[in-house]
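Re: Re: C-alpha cell formats

Sure, here are both.
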Amino acid sequence: MTKTRMVFNCQKCGYQSPKWLGRCPDCGEWGSLVEEQEVLPRREGERDWVFEETTPKTVDQIEPDKEERIKTRISEFDRVLGGGVVRGSVILVGGDPGIGKSTLLLQVLNQLGSDKFKVLYISGEESVSQTKVRAERINVSSPHLYILTENNLERIIKIIRELKPKVVVIDSIQTIYSLDLQSAPGSISQVRDASGKIIFLSKATGFSTFLIGHVTKEGAIAGPRVLEHMVDTVLYFEGDRGHPYRILRAVKNRFGSTNEIGVFEMKDDGLDEVLSPSELFLAERPLDEPGSVVVPSLEGSRPILIEVQALVSPTSFGMPRRMAMGVDSNRLTLLVAVLERKQGIKLYNQDIYLNVAGGLKISEPAVDLGIIGAVASSLLYKPVVAETVMFGEVGLAGEIRGISQSETRVKESEKLGFKRCILPRNNEKRFQGDTKLKLLGVSTIEEVLKLLF
C-alpha cells in the first residue's frame, strides 16, 4: 500500500511543517498553512514510471541527440518556444483568467492535428459540449484533435497510455486530483503530485505536455514554486483586457531563449499572430504631441518600436507622484533625479506619469533615453520631431552609455520611415551598417536636450 503522512503545507509558497503555524516562516503569509496528506516516496522497484537504467559515461562518449521539434505553424508561438515543441518537453502556461490561454492552445492543437498528429485536450473546467462551442467559434475542427473532460489523475494517465497522443494539453493543472490524497483539488499536495506524475510519464513515453496554470493576485503561477523548476519551459500570457493585444513571454526555457516574445491580437474568431508589432504599436501614435517619444526596443532577436508617453503637471499635494506603466517605477525616479541634478530641471513640484503604449513591459536600459526625452518634452511642452527615434542607457553622472545591437534597431527604424536617430556616441562610432537615417551621437543629457529642443 502507498504510505502517507499528514503535514501542514503553505498554500502560497509550498513550505512544509510538521505542526501548524500561524505565520509561514518562508513567505511570511498569515493563516496559509493547511493540513494535507502527503504521499511518501516508494521504495526502489515500486515506481510506476522510471527512465531507462543507464550507466555513467564520460562526456566524450555521449552521442548528442538531435532536438526533434514539432512545428505548430503559428510562427509567433514557435518563436517563443525556440523553434517549435520539443519531443517529451513539459511546458507550463500561466496568465490572468480570460486572457486567452485555452483559446491559444486549442488553436495550437488544431494546427498540429491538421498535420495528422494525434493530440489530446483535457479540460477540468469545461464540459465537452462547452469546449465544442469554443472550438466552433475559433474554427477548430481537426479530426485528429480529441477532447476529454476529466479531473481524476489516474483515469487521465490511463487514457493517455491507451490513446498515445503526440501532444497533451491539461486545462488546468489546479483542477486535477489524485485518489491517493485526501486534500482538495488545487491544494499544494494535489498540484505537486499530479504534476510530478504527468511529467514522469511525459519524459518516459515521449509525448509533449502543456500544463495551464492559474495565477495568484500577485501575478505568479498558483501552486508550489517547485512546479516551475520541474517543467522545461514556463510561458506567461500577458495583456490588458482593455487592449486586444496579447504578449506571450518565456521566463524559463531549457530549449531556447528566454528573451523572445510572441505578439497576438484577440479577435472574435480567436487569436491572430502579429507579424509586424512595430506598425501595430505605432498605428495610433499622435504626431507633434509633447511627451511622446519612439524608442526601438529589443525583445530577444526582434526589434520593436514602442511609444513612450510622459505627462508632467504641477502637483497639488505635498509629495509629487511618480507613476510608471510598462517600465520600472524605480528607474523613472532615478532618471528624474539625474535630470534635476545634472541639468537643473525642477521636477520636485511636478507629478510625473509615464506609460508604454500598447501594454508592453520594457526592462532593458536602452529605453532610458526615451524616458528622459518624453519627460523633458512634456515639461517644456515642446514636441519631439515626429520622424525621430532615440535609444541609450543613462548613467547617474548624466552620461549616455552604449547598448547592444544598435544596427538592428536602426534598420527597423529606417524600415518604418523614420529620418533621424539619436543614439550613444559610442554606438555611432562603431556603427558598421549602411543606413539612410541621420545618426546623431550623444554622450551627455545636455547634448540630447539641445538636439531635441
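Second one below.
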Amino acid sequence: MDKLNQSYPSWLRFWHSVNGILCLTLVITGLMMQYAQPEKILISLGTVIYIHNFCGIALIISWIFFILANGLTNNGSYYWPKMKVFKESIIQLRYYAYGMFKGEHKPFKEDKTRKFNPLQQMAYWSTMYIFLPLMVITGFVMYNIERLLIDDKSILVYQICDFIHLSAAFMISVFLVIHLYLAFIEGITNFKKIIFKSKTYDGDN
C-alpha cells in the first residue's frame, strides 16, 4: 500500500469541526422550528429561534473565513472541478455502489494534486459555493426582512427566501448524511486525518 504525504493545515481542521457542528445545530433547530409543537419540545421555541439565528450568524462568519482562506492558500484549488469530473464521477459512483463492497481499490487515489475523489469534489464545491451561500443569503434576508422591506412585498420576498432556504438546507443535510456515512464506511482513518495532524495516510483506504 502506497503511503502518501498528507497534512491538513490546522485552520482547515478547526474550521471543518466548527462548520460541521454549526450545520448540524442549524439542521436540528430548523426542523424544530418547522415541525415541532412548542408545548412538546424541551426548550422554548424562542430559545430554539435564538440558537438558530446565533448559529446562522456564526456560519456566515465561518463561510467568509473559508472563502478567504481558500483564496489566500493553495487549499482552494482542490475544490474546483474540471470538465472530466462528470465522466470520473460515474466511475466513482460505481465504486461506491458496488466496488467498495467487493474489496476493490479506489479508482482515484488522493495525492498532492487531488485531495478529493470526483464525487467528493462536486459535492464539496456545490455545497460550499452554491447551497451554503444560498442558505446564508436567504437566512440573512429573512432575519432582517422588517429592516429591508416595509411594504406588502416583504411577505412574498420572505416566502421565496424561505423556500430557497429550506431547499438549500435540505441539500446540505443530504450531503452531511452521505458524508458521515462514507466516512464511517471507509474507517476511522478519515476522522484521524481531519481531527489530528497526520503526516501520512494510506492511499488505498
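The radius of gyration is 19 Å. The longest helix spans residues 153-185.
- S.
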